[in-house]
Amino acid sequence: MNLTPIVAGNWKMYKTPSEGASFIELTKNLLLDIEHVSVIFAPPFTGLFDLNVKPPFYSAAQNCHWEQTGAFTGEISVSMIRDCGAEFVIIGHSERRHVFGESDEWINRKVKAVLAGNMKPILCIGELLNQREAGQTELVLKSQLKQGLAGVEALENIVIAYEPVWAIGTGVTANANQVESAHSSVRNILKELYPESDTIHVLYGGSVKSGNAEELIQIPGVNGFLIGGASLDVESFASITRTVETVQLRTL
Questions:
Q1: Which one is catalytic: 65, 93, 183, 201?
Q2: Quick check: is 1 in a domain?
Q3: Residue 126's closest CA among 66, 178, 196, 59?
Q4: 88 phi and psi angles, rounded to 5 deg
Q5: Are 182 and 139 in contact (CB under 8 A)?
Q6: Could you give the CA distance from residue 77 to residue 165 in angstroms, rounded to a whole number?
Q7: How many domains does the chain have?
Q8: Is 122 helix (H, G, I), strand (E, B) or coil?
Q9: Whole-model pTM over 0.85
């Protein structure tokens, strides 16, 4: 299973539209020869419209609402996102779960809305530190996957991002054994839920940076990264992407 790796940058609440557009142009100029990595930029909603991206570059929203229209002040629908030219939507990021209180039911509704809108969800899952210390990592991942994918018939347009919550923005990276074990668990759970589906991207996220990207991308079961802080710096993001491309070329 030799999937084209994905390097996705989640900008969170950073970069104005003009800053984002400039960032993307600078990044593309540094990665003119990239052919074997899909690069996704996820700006705030205000920065999504009319971005100059085409494969291997793509854009993603950081969230959405599951309804197409309605009296939902401050929310954005899938059709609005699609009309901006984006192809992906990040769903269930730990900050949405633990800061804004999104439930697995809400996340499931959003996943199904994104798929119904002919877009691709990047479904984020991951355990808290106390859950890992209690030996509940696999239990948490299974619960999040089963509930988040409830009613979804196939995985072909879905990306999974494993992000241990205790490693997001903390500077602490899960070690290679922890990452490999978690990704193996994710794949086993998915295989149990979808026996005929074994070609799905499972990304790693959690304090990924240029200094550890090479080690992380070579861990079995890791098909790329969902990056936060390091995606805000052009040189850092480009360096990580180039590292992934270099490692991918060795496998071709």
A1: 93
A2: no
A3: 178
A4: -125, 155
A5: no
A6: 27
A7: 1
A8: strand
A9: yes
Is residue 16 situated within a structural domain? yes
> Catalytic: which of 87, 95, 127, 163?
163
> For residue 125, what is the domain's CATH number?
3.20.20.70
Say if residue 142's pLDDT is above 90.
Answer: yes
**93 has catalytic annotation:** yes
| pLDDT tens-place string over residues 32-79 | 999 999 999 999 999 999 898 999 999 999 999 999 999 999 999 999
Per-residue exposure over 43-80, b if at least 16 CB sit within 10 Å of its own CB, e if not: bbbebbbebebeebbbbbbbbbbbeeeeeeeeebbbeb
245 is catalytic: no
Q: Looking at 16-158, which runs of residues are DSSP E strands?
A: 38-42, 57-61, 88-91, 120-125
- Residue-range definition of the domain harbouring residue 232: 6-251
Domain for residue 21, yes or no?
Answer: yes
